[in-house]
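Allow me, if you will, to draw on your knowledge of protein folds for a short while. Thank you for your consideration; the sequence and its tokens are set out here:
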Amino acid sequence: MIGVHQIAPDPPGSQRQRRCGMNRGRWLCFALAIALITLAWFQIFSAHSGLVVRSLRRDSVPLLYLAPENAQGSAPGVLIAHGFAGSKQLMLGYGYVLAHQGYAVMLWDFDGHGSNSYPFSRQDLQQNLQTAWDALKQQPEWDAKRLASLGHSLGSFATLSAAVQHPASFAATVALSPVPAPVNARFPRNLQIQVGQWEPAQIQANGDRIMREAGADSLIPSVDRSGDRGGGGVTRLLGRGQYQLTQVAKARTALADLEAALAEGLARQQIEIPKVEHIGILFSDRSHQAALDWLDRAFGLEVSGRGPRGSHVQLANLDRARSHWSWGNRIRG
């Protein structure tokens, strides 16, 4: 009679079971990696959908150009400059938001940053910006009569300096987490400063100083939306005097004066972006939207999410934690 041998199961924790567990873990990690890579490529294709995307190199400076398809000379241009130890990739949040809203944007790597292997020199910042500007001039989608700039940290120095040196060329400038830069009461035109709530005190002080030197200390109103529920509420303007405005119509009169200041290039705005620090501000939807709204107003475009300018101005989204506005002495209490 042939005996029947039963194969006993592997004891818990045996080498065979450990090996099977490791294999399952590896396959799970592999599947997760494939899923994440697929998601990343999907997001890239979604971000590029409807856009012209060109990778360029001029005078050893790597550049990336984004613009709406079929713009054909109608898109306002924006030069976007990264900060120290950054790269153009870190600024793509602003690039994609602006390009999808009708702007032609040019990003680049400063010398010694990103894929730019040329040694870094602070003296070459303006030359790098000029290289990007010259490349933008060659793009068929850009409207050559409309130009703005946006810069973060060290990049804000380059963009602010360019806007002061070429005031007739730049309609507006957005400075994120700024460093000290030469500005005055007239230039740059239509300046917005953004500072993160959790930025170092020195960065916050830089923003305050730039605003004062840009002439914003004469009258700095702030819009308080805490009491507004559906179009009513109380708006408070703070400056050299205090005015209690309980009618939205009066606040809209103030905004109409902002429109006039923007037309003259004298508008100034300072915004604190909540719950972000020096790098986190670059990935903040609130920061992206605030920059877009400011540039839309400066160029007289339809303000995103608020209807055509000049026909109906709503007060929603005017204040992002702390918003300082100044447009000379045009505010009336």
